[in-house]
Write a structure and sequence with these properties.
The complex is a heterodimer. In chain A, 30% of the residues lie in helices and 28% in strands. Chain A is α/β, with parallel strands linked by helices. In chain A, strands 1, 2, 4, 6, 7, 9, 11, 12, 14, 16 and 18 form an eleven-stranded mixed β-sheet that branches. In chain A, α3 runs antiparallel to α9 and α7 crosses α8. Chain B has one domain: Rossmann fold, CATH 3.40.50. In chain B, α4 crosses α6 and α6 runs parallel beside α7. The chains are: A alpha/beta, B alpha/beta.
């Protein structure tokens, strides 16, 4: 009986397969054939396909984690389509006139130029003219410095030895359920390599890959900073992205070799669902970096989007004197849920880590900080400082803190500070008595609360992040 | 400027103002004195629209407009200013940013252009010097880590910048040393221009040596029980409020 069913499914699938090639979108479902198809579409070498299949095998043995403080209906992984060609423009709006006016209103408030609005809203324009010229000059400057910055699918073909060496070296295929899924089916993402001793001449931003949007829900990013190099990478955009995929499971790996520095900044603003909590993106991300001797890895994130966020950008401080930093603002409103934090794993001597996490909850949302500081026996002289602050707006939301500290070395110094506060009536009254309306007052108070994190963001990003909080908090008062 | 007629207001179901009448003309300084719990602070809070205070009856006209039709921030933009007895801190929000946003809101309402950052900084520095606050305070979080006296001077700084029409000072003198008291008084006196009006709520006659009022009122049992000129304040200082008790009933 089960054999019969299986063959039926296979049949349907085979039938669907043809039409899938025509429309460049696979029918829902996940099996080895799907992975082979993805790999073939991207003209990947055999080793890459084998790597994916190994991940898929592992994933099938794993089960979805349930420890996070988030609640959502069971995800049916067989109901998702795992490949959609970025070239498909059929279902996209033809112009901004066809885009949801509420989205356009938000773009306006964030002050996003028109051509960017088109790209973000997924309007089917052949090329974004302004940015094409930008991209060209940008690429030239980077190649002069010897920096590689390209889609990871391209890197797999062009720089196989680099990719093969580092892919999965920080987040192995079997690391966790979502990382295994990503390893099996990742669609695209970015690859960065900074050669020895090079200071990357500019901030690398996914913005410059705006014409290569729609990298899909399983993004894979690999950044390798060779000895003594520096790079600052900006991921995301403050504008809400139009996206029909409900599940996102990205993996980001950072490798900072001896004396290298990587600064990775994220603004995540995926669709959070409507005011009643319907819809919205589930964001299950694995981000981790490894820091070798004297290296520094710094994560800065501003999370305002997604219905469910599950994300713990982490640092493995492998080399002596290496430094890990995590600066985070997570804002939830309406029915959003966020379980986010970091892991700092101290392996080398005199390693140090800093964690500044700011959680803001409004509406009926729930925000959790979950962090792990682990000092291994060999990590002589390790230091950690953690500060977790939660801010509540209204009385129907929640803030939670789950700090884990595992210390196996008596010489370690570990500090943990945590506060929970409310936007007080007195603060609101002071602002309003000076002529500010309630929304402006809340956004100002919240921005003040986040200041320590915002000052870590590149300047332009910091200004945008402030505006973004203002937009995200709309309707949270009054 | 302001007409208060038969104002009745309560907080948490407890009636605090009990048919209060008061008229304040342009350019006048009115001192409100009275025993603890008489409703002195309530008056300022009701006028500025603080949450939790419920107006049960009565009427207040502010420059001819029905005050209770206006939101908190609208009253502020119309030129009503409350200097707080206990100014709160807003961590991380720089004083400069806060002052600029407040002034922008007020100027916009008046149909004026926002000041450029340069002009604003110049004005803010000059004004902070007038209240003897170091310019460094402009960069710090609003009232964050300020001493009691610094907080009060910061209130006067805000008042001077916003140039309100009606200033309500809620026991601004409490907890101030003589020097700080003088700074506050000088600020108020410098702003007296024959048009701007003041309501000075205080426990002590001392402040009124520096800010000389046109009228002095005694608030007790939720209404004005006695009014007079500055001599009344001296009389109160000498005799206390006990002798007025008959008039409360």
């Amino acid at each position: 009986m089960s054999e019969q069913v299986e063959s039926l499914i296979r049949k349907d699938y085979a039938a669907g397969f043809h039409s899938a090639i025509e429309s460049d979108t696979l029918p829902p479902g996940l099996n080895e054939d799907v992975i082979r198809h993805i790999s073939a579409q991207k003209e990947e070498p055999q080793w890459m396909l084998d790597w994916r299949l190994k991940a898929f095998e592992a994933w099938q043995q794993m089960s979805e984690p349930t420890w996070a403080h988030v609640h959502y209906p069971q995800i049916d992984f067989q109901s998702i389509s795992y490949y959609s060609s970025p070239k498909s423009m059929k279902n996209r709006p033809k112009s901004l006139d066809e885009v949801d006016p509420e989205l356009l209103e938000t773009y306006k408030k964030l002050g996003i130029p028109l051509h960017e609005q088109e790209a973000l809203a997924g309007v089917a324009v052949d090329a974004v003219f302004d940015s094409v010229s930008v991209v060209t000059t940008f690429r030239k400057k980077l190649s002069e410095a010897g920096v590689i910055f390209c889609p990871i699918s391209e890197a797999i073909r062009e720089y196989p030895e680099l990719v093969q060496k580092y892919l999965g070296s920080v987040v192995p295929q079997k690391d966790n359920y979502y990382a295994a899924l990503n390893s099996a089916v990742f669609s695209d993402g970015s690859f960065v390599y900074i050669p020895k001793g090079v200071r990357c001449p500019m901030e690398l931003s996914t913005y410059f890959r705006i014409n290569e949007l729609n990298t899909g829900q399983f993004e894979r990013t690999l950044i390798v900073a060779d000895e003594g190099s520096h790079v600052s990478y900006l991921e995301g955009c403050t504008a809400p992205m139009r996206d029909e995929n409900q599940l996102h499971a990205a993996v980001v790996e950072l490798v900072a070799l001896d004396n290298a520095q990587i600064k990775y900044s994220t603004v995540q603003n995926w669709y959070p669902g409507d005011k009643e909590g319907k819809g919205g993106i589930y964001n299950f991300v694995t981000k981790r970096g490894i820091a070798h001797t004297n290296a520094r890895i710094s994560w800065t994130q501003v999370e305002t989007g997604s219905a469910v966020t599950w994300k713990y950008p982490s640092c493995i401080l492998k080399g002596d004197n290496s430094v890990g930093e995590f600066y985070s603002v997570a804002l939830t409103n309406n029915f959003q849920q966020a379980d986010t934090g970091t892991k700092m794993i101290h392996l080398g001597k005199n390693t140090s880590s800093t964690i500044i996490a700011k959680g803001i909850s409004a509406g009926r949302s729930n925000s959790s900080y979950r962090g792990l500081v682990r000092i291994n026996p060999a990590a002589e002289g390790a230091r950690n400082f953690t500060q977790c602050d939660s801010l509540l707006i209204g009385d129907r939301c929640g803030a939670h803190t789950f700090p884990y500290i595992e210390n196996r070395n008596a010489s370690a110094v570990i500090e943990h500070e945590a506060t929970t506060s409310k936007v007080s009536d007195d603060q609101m009254f002071l602002c309003q008595q000076r002529g500010l309306d309630a929304e402006k007052a809340v956004s100002m108070i919240v921005n003040g609360f986040c200041r320590e994190v915002f000052k870590e963001l590149p300047m332009e990003f910091a200004v945008e992040a402030g505006k973004l909080l203002e937009v995200s908090l709309e309707g949270s008062v009054g | 400027m302001l007409q208060i007629k038969e104002l009745v207001a309560e907080i948490d179901g407890k009636q605090i103002l009990n048919g209060l009448n008061l008229t304040i003309g342009d350019g006048e300084v009115h001192a409100i004195m009275g025993p603890n719990g008489a409703g002195k602070s309530t008056l300022g809070n009701v006028l500025t629209g603080r949450d939790g205070y419920e107006v049960k009856s009565g009427e207040v006209l502010f420059n001819g407009k029905n005050l209770f039709d206006l939101e908190i921030e609208e009253r502020a933009r119309e030129g009503m200013f409350l200097a707080f007895q206990y100014p709160v801190e807003i961590p991380g929000v720089s004083n400069m940013e806060f002052l600029k946003a407040s002034l922008d809101a007020r100027r916009k309402h008046q149909g004026l252009e926002e000041l450029s950052s340069f002009d604003f900084m110049k004005l803010a520095r000059e004004t902070s010097a007038k209240v003897s606050l170091d310019a460094a305070f402009l960069k710090r979080g609003v009232n964050e880590g300020f001493s009691g006296g610094e907080k009060k001077r910061n209130e006067i700084l805000q008042m001077m910048l916003l140039e309100p029409q009606l200033c309500i000072l809620d026991e601004t003198d409490s907890g101030l040393d003589i020097d700080a008291l003088q700074v506050v008084a000088n600020g108020v006196n410098a702003m007296r221009d024959g048009k701007r009006s003041f309501i000075v709520v205080t426990h002590y006659q001392r402040l009124l040596d520096y800010i000389v009022p046109d009228h002095v009122h005694v608030l007790a049992g939720g209404k004005i029980v006695k009014s007079g000129d500055k001599e009344l304040a001296k009389e109160l200082e000498a005799k206390g409020y006990g002798w007025l008790e008959g008039e409360v009933a």
